[in-house]
């Protein structure tokens, strides 16, 4: 009941703070949520990927994650600097389904907030709740080290309830993965992201 009421809350928030205000609120929620999870350290990628599979990291709190070990990301020397991961089901998907079945169409405020985020910040949200989830992953990844190296999260793609897909080509280019591969992953996943060593990309090092 309370999760369904979130849509009424978003409607109310939009009427009082506008779509931009709601975007900023969801960003702060994601940041606060991630910071509360604390820091994590793993001796290497195998240990981290086992933790991801077993749901022992902050990044798995949203749901079951597929570790795509066939999509290892390597640098110019051939060393592994990250992997691609897929969230099997958006944690809000059951709520969306219940809302549609019990109440009716998803309120327009959901799309309005997502559009505000897409137009002003990054074109990657298929729902207003994507804002919090993506920000959470970004901050949580910054609190994780693998082999004493900080991580960063690159959002790659996600799929909406009607099958619409948002994909960030610049991030796919950075890890050198073809978008057709990501689309095939989305057939059995809601969201796809990469975790890489901070400041690196496939084939070269990014200078900050």
CATH fold name: Muramoyl-pentapeptide Carboxypeptidase, domain 2
- Global morphology: globular
Residue share in helices? 40-55%
Low-confidence stretches: none
Layout of SSEs?
Elements: H1 5-36, E1 40-42, H2 45-53, E2 65-74, E3 80-87, H3 93-102, H4 108-120, H5 129-142, E4 144-146, E5 149-159, E6 165-167, H6 169-175, H7 179-185, E7 191-197, E8 200-201, E9 204-205
Parallel strand pairs: 1-4
Antiparallel strand pairs: 2-3, 3-7, 4-5, 5-6, 5-7, 8-9
What does this structure look like?
By secondary structure, the chain is of the alpha+beta class. The protein has one domain (5-205): Muramoyl-pentapeptide Carboxypeptidase, domain 2. Helices cover 44% and strands 24% of the residues. It is built from seven helices and nine strands; from the N terminus they run H-E-H-E-E-H-H-H-E-E-E-H-H-E-E-E. The strands form two sheets. Strands 1, 2, 3, 4, 5, 6 and 7 form a seven-stranded mixed β-sheet that branches. Strand 4 (144-146) and strand 5 form a beta hairpin. Helix 1 crosses helix 4 (108-120) and helix 1 (5-36) packs parallel to helix 5. The model has no long low-confidence stretch (mean pLDDT 91).
């Amino acid at each position: 009941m309370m999760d369904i009421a979130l849509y009424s809350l978003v409607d109310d928030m939009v009427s009082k703070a506008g779509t931009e205000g709601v975007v900023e609120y969801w960003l702060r929620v994601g940041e606060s949520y991630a910071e509360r999870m604390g820091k994590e350290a793993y001796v290497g990628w195998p240990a981290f990927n086992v933790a991801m599979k077993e749901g022992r990291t902050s990044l798995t709190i949203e749901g079951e994650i597929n570790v795509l070990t066939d999509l290892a990301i390597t640098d110019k020397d051939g060393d592994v600097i990250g992997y691609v991961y897929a969230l099997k089901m958006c944690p809000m998907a059951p709520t969306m389904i219940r809302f549609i079945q019990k109440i009716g169409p998803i309120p327009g405020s959901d799309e309005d907030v997502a559009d505000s985020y897409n137009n002003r910040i990054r074109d990657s949200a298929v729902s207003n709740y994507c804002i919090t989830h993506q920000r959470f992953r970004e901050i949580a990844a910054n609190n994780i080290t693998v082999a004493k190296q900080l991580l960063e999260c690159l959002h790659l793609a996600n799929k909406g309830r009607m099958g619409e897909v948002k994909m960030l080509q610049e991030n796919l280019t950075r890890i050198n993965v073809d978008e057709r591969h990501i689309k095939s992953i989305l057939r059995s996943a809601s969201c796809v992201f990469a975790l890489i060593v901070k400041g690196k990309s496939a084939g070269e090092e990014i200078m900050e």
